[in-house]
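User: quick one, sequence for these tokens?
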């Protein structure tokens, strides 16, 4: 298994709507070929999973969760982070403000 395949497997494991794996894998490969970074895609997909779980618990219909290939093709991994606190890989806390602006928290 190549590192790209392993990265996709990680993406697939956290993405909530497991529909059309082959389409998603092709879209993932296309995103990487276009210069996207696998770790960034996977990290943002985890945030999207939390966003959707929160929305669904609040009454949003799960059908509004994007298909994985759509999420990738629309480059949603580049969307700004939602407001809140983020802890980076070094354990430092950062506040994310509206619009994805980051500041030390």
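Assistant:
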């Amino acid at each position: 298994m190549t590192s790209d395949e392993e990265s996709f497997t990680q993406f697939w494991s956290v993405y909530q709507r497991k529909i059309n794996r082959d389409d998603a894998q092709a879209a993932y490969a296309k995103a990487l070929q276009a210069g996207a970074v696998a770790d960034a895609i996977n990290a943002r997909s985890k945030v999207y999973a939390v966003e959707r779980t929160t929305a669904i618990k609040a009454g949003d219909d799960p059908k509004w969760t994007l298909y994985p290939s759509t999420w990738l093709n629309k480059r949603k991994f580049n969307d700004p982070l939602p407001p809140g606190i983020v802890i980076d890989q070094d354990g430092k806390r950062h506040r994310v403000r509206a619009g994805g602006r980051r500041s030390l928290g």
